[in-house]
Automatic annotation (TrEMBL):
It is found in: Secreted, Extracellular space, Extracellular matrix. It comes from Nyctibius bracteatus. This is COKA1 protein. Residues 161-250 form the Fibronectin type-III domain. Keywords: Extracellular matrix, Secreted. Residues 1-133 form the VWFA domain. InterPro entries: ECM_Assembly_Org, FN3_dom, FN3_sf, Ig-like_fold, VWF_A, vWFA_dom_sf. Pfam families: fn3, VWA.
C-alpha cells in the first residue's frame, strides 16, 4: 500500500489494491508527486487509521512494516505518532533524502537503527539502497514470523470489531463515549478525535478491557469526529465512527438597566453557568437614533 502526504495525507492505493508485482510497478510509474508541507506525524496517524485496517487489506497474521520516505523535517510531532505505531508492534523504516533531519529519522525508526535508518543526498541515490533494504526487510519479516506463531483467524465483523458507539453527557467542553466490545477482546483501544472542520487529531489509548471514555478540554460549539479502533497484537481491527457537536457556552440572561444619570448607568444580569469573568462592551447609539 502507498500514501503520500504534505499537510494532508492521501492514500494512493490500499494493501489489497494489487496482487502482482507488475501491477504495483505500473501504479508507481503512474504516481503523481504531491508537493507541499511535511506533516509526518499526521501521515503516520493516517497510515495506522486508514491503511493498516482489515478492510484496506491488512491481514492479522502478517507482519506490519511502514517505510517512511521524507525529504524534510516534520512540521508536527512525528515522534509521538511513530511511538504509537511501534507500541502496537508495527516496525518503521525511515529513509531521508536531501534536507531530511537525521536525528528525527532515528527517533521515528524502530530499533536497531543501523538496519532501519537510511539517508541519501539526492533522489537518484535511492536506487543504491534497494538491494540492501530489500534484504533487510525480508530478513526482518522472517525473524518476526518465526518468533510469533500466532493463529488469529482472519475475519472481521463482531469477532474483531467493536459495535454500538454511543455518545452521551455532551457539554460545552466534554462528552462521554461507550461501545460494545468485539467477541474477541482487543489488547488495547485507540480513540482518535478532532474537529470536523479541520484540526490536529488527538488520541487516547486504553486497555482492551475498558469500553468507555470521557473526552474533556474540548472546544465549545464545535462538531467533532470520533473513531474507536480495536488494537490486537498483529494489527488494527475495523473501527467505529461517530460525530457530535459540543454545546455552546452558557450565556448571561435578563439584562437590566437601572440608576441612569447624565454620565452613568448600572447594568445587572443573571449569571452564566461556569463563567469566571464578563466582558462588557458599551458604545454610543448610531447617529439619528434616540438617546
Amino acid at each position: 500500500g502507498l500514501s503520500q502526504y504534505s499537510s494532508d495525507p492521501r492514500t494512493e492505493w490500499d494493501l489489497s489494491a494489487y496482487s502482482t508485482r507488475d501491477q504495483v510497478l505500473e501504479a508507481v510509474r503512474n504516481l503523481r508527486y504531491k508537493g507541499g508541507n511535511t506533516f509526518t506525524g499526521l501521515a503516520l496517524a493516517h497510515v495506522l487509521e486508514q491503511n493498516l485496517k482489515l478492510d484496506a487489506g491488512a491481514r492479522l497474521e502478517a507482519e506490519k512494516l511502514v517505510i517512511l520516505l521524507t525529504d524534510g523535517k516534520s512540521q508536527d510531532d512525528a515522534n509521538l505518532a511513530a511511538q504509537t505505531l511501534k507500541n502496537l508492534g508495527i516496525e518503521i523504516f525511515a529513509i531521508g533524502v536531501k534536507n531530511a533531519d537525521e536525528a528525527e529519522l532515528k527517533q521515528v525508526a524502530s530499533e536497531p537503527l543501523e538496519l532501519t535508518v537510511y539517508n541519501v543526498l539526492d533522489f537518484p541515490l535511492l536506487s543504491s539502497l534497494v538491494g540492501t533494504l530489500t534484504q533487510v526487510l525480508c530478513t526482518r519479516i522472517k525473524e518476526k514470523s518465526n518468533k510469533e506463531n500466532a493463529d488469529i483467524p482472519v475475519n472481521t465483523g463482531p469477532q474483531l470489531s467493536p459495535t454500538d458507539l454511543k455518545i452521551s453527557a455532551v457539554t460545552s467542553k466534554s462528552m462521554h463515549l461507550t461501545w460494545s466490545p468485539p467477541l474477541r477482546p482487543p489488547k488495547k483501544y485507540r480513540i482518535v478525535y478532532y474537529p470536523s472542520k479541520g484540526g490536529t487529531p488527538k488520541e487516547v489509548v486504553l486497555d482492551g478491557a475498558v469500553t468507555s471514555l470521557r473526552l474533556s478540554n474540548l472546544t465549545s460549539h464545535m462538531e467533532y469526529l470520533v473513531s474507536v479502533f480495536p488494537v490486537y497484537d498483529t494489527g488494527v481491527g475495523d473501527g467505529l465512527r461517530g460525530v457530535t457537536s459540543t454545546l455552546p457556552l452558557s450565556s448571561p440572561r435578563s439584562l437590566r438597566v437601572s440608576e441612569l444619570s447624565h454620565n452613568s448607568i448600572r447594568l445587572s444580569w443573571k449569571a452564566a453557568q461556569g463563567a469566571t469573568q464578563y466582558l462588557v462592551l458599551c458604545s454610543a447609539a448610531p447617529d439619528g437614533a434616540e438617546d
